[in-house]
TrEMBL record:
Signal sequence range: 1-20
A family per Pfam: Peptidase_S9
Residue ranges annotated for the Peptidase S9 prolyl oligopeptidase catalytic domain, each copy included: 475-681
Top-level taxon of the source organism: Bacteria
Name listed for the protein in its UniProt record: S9 family peptidase
Keyword Signal tagged: yes
Amino acid sequence: MNKLLSLSFLLIFSVGVTLAQQPVLKPLSHEAMMSMKRVGAPKISPDGQWVIYSQQSVSYEAESSQSDLWLASADGLQAPRKITQTKSGEDNYFWHPSEKKIFFTAKREGDESAQLYTLDLSLGGDAQRLSNFSLGIGSPQINADGNKILFSAKVFPGVFTDSLNKKQAEEKKKLKYKARVYTSFPIRYFDTWLDEKQTHVFVLDLISQKVQNVFTGISLIQSKGFQLGSFSWAPDQQSVVFTATIDRHTTAYQNAISKIYQVSIHGGKEKLLVDDQGDYSSVEFSKDGKYALALGAPLNQTKVYQLNRLYRFSWPEMSYKTELVSTLDRPINQMEVSKAYILASIEDQGVDRLIRISLQDGSYQAVLGGKQGSFNQVSLSNQENVFAYQYNSMAIPAEVFVHHADKEVAISKANLALLKNYDVKDPEEFWTMSRGKKIRSFLMKPASFDPTKKYPLLVLMHGGPASSFKDIYGYRWNPHVIAGTEYVIVMTDYTGSVGYGEKFAQDIQFDPFKGPGQEILDAANDAIKRYSFIDGSRQAASGASYGGHLANWMQATTSHFKCLISHAGLVNSEAQWGTSDVIWGRELMNGGAPWVPTKTWKEQNPMRFAANFKTPILLTVGENDFRVPINNTLENWSILQRQKVPSKLIVFPEENHWVLMAENSRFHYQEIRNWLATYLK
């Protein structure tokens, strides 16, 4: 991070320094966390003069929560002002390519589904609705001339118009029976039962108001395994380039492969652009239309994790495929493309950094980033060296900034005044040698920290496993709220975490719990040795999703902890394989199907060690969770009750894999802290 940027963030967001000078600072409560404004991704105008972003205020009364769009000058000289004030929020907002107009989707009064709206900022007034499409407007994109919009919508198979889809939906409502019927996998995803509908791409002509289904003539939609991935305007503005698979129905026994296609906006047969055994997730184009940039991975049905690679093709021939940044070995979170370079956010050892990638030779250099905080959600203007982005850290909720050639300008500053009242610290980083490799951890000190005191230790374990503990602000497992003034928290990126190279993420294969669990224990012991203020006799561990799996593994294999907390955690790997919404990756992880007696299935399934269960444990789960279905938590509960282990079960009937509703979240945090207080006195 350059000196100018460091100074900018020091002045604006070095809350720890500012707070340390104030006499009375409060620990971050759940109420304070929820009162923070949630600032969305910025979109900078093409001329680089203006920025729009969403800002949400969350209330414990759901009907009182509000989300609106805000407008600010990119130079920071004009304070942000709210430009929408309706009950429903706005989404998918973007600029007209040459006019001072913005577009967004919203479900406003009278709308059955999300529709497209526009707001002319040069005229003021209210936003005008541009569509009346019963299927709703999803993922809209405007063309270079500013007169057509691409969007996605779900349709019944073989039905291509809005009116016929309405008729089909009405006929379905008339059926006297209620049943879901399936003949292939998958049948549900995350928290939703899947139906027969397909996602198609449409084009809306802003002048004539006509809507055309672009997929009317493509053969791909005839496959029961069809699923659309991403889509983009081609440089000719007369066609769409998209990724799609026809293999979704095979995902019970292999990975689905997505290829790159092109189709005219007037319909017709698709053209296969790339068929090289690669699996592609997205395609974008350079501003001059010379290159197509695709994210994808080489076809591999044997690895539990693969890093997405960045490829450049000459357009329109789609020739001269070249891998850019081949030595990067880090995930690309998000990117935007100009004429000469790509600006990308990458995940690197616990932070999101920004890099600039040359379109010509694939070389890259750091733009923004350091040891603290994360940079993401970049938005490029047409002006050289002028772009918008988000910055956040564990201590600072996301805020909007604009980068100029010689300075960083804080735009939103939505939470700056409120943060000054709370003792929120940046995490400390430390590395531990475990199993012959270096393992990174964050350590978080509690509010009102006193180095002469002894604090209990809470070990937080992240989900995934292909994720990491990043220096970003979170609402679901906020370490400041959990820690309060009582606990030191250690967060470890065990083998399988991303941001440390593809191999590090892949090495969890065939060793899902034992190796990562040992690394977590080693990091906790290392922290106790390093930091004299930790009381090693009072330790607890907690996690959600894969972190919940690991909490149950700790239950099965160690009496190290005074208590445990497991949210959405599996206790029986075999049951998880058969009931989760995704199964093939679990087979890859364990070296075969559950009926194949692999070493991993036999030796790393917590339930097989139920005789060892003895540590008091809190179980929480969302009833609508299809990723780690409730059966695993109920099975765990049965084991605990059978083994007479002190335990508590909390089921959230309206929640899915996460606990998101404000009052449910508050209760969840209270129960976590109450459980810790009971056993870590």
